[in-house]
Amino acid sequence: MPNISSDFSGQTVITTFEMTPGTAQDLMDALKDAYEKFIRHQPGFIGAGLHMNDAQTRIANYSQWRDREDFKAMLRTEEMRERNRQMAALCSRFEPVMYEVSAAF
């Protein structure tokens, strides 16, 4: 489970997905499946959360990793590359961005 703290020294990744309400649940199901069966078992994975807006046009994914290289290694696996291709077909765009925690309240 993610723990947002200003003394967190790992890598935080926030990914946003944009889609139509017609594909929102399919994309959420694909993301849940990816975390349950693959991502959470990868070296360096700490935790993640998935959030969907009320209009079902955006999903936000917050994940924490031991370090940047662990996250990048997961993305380079053949399984994740194939999953990302499938998820890309369900949304108009998605963008993972790496962040560092500046403050937590």
TrEMBL record:
Enzyme class: oxidoreductase
Alphabetized UniProt keyword annotations: Monooxygenase, Oxidoreductase
Lyase in keyword set: no
Keyword Flavoprotein appears in the UniProt entry: no
Coiled coil location: none
Enzyme Commission code(s) on record: 1.13.12.21
Pfam family, one: ABM
Domain ABM stretches: 11-101
InterPro entries: ABM_dom, Dimeric_a/b-barrel
Protein name: Tetracenomycin-F1 monooxygenase
Lineage: Bacteria, Pseudomonadati, Pseudomonadota, Alphaproteobacteria, Rhodobacterales
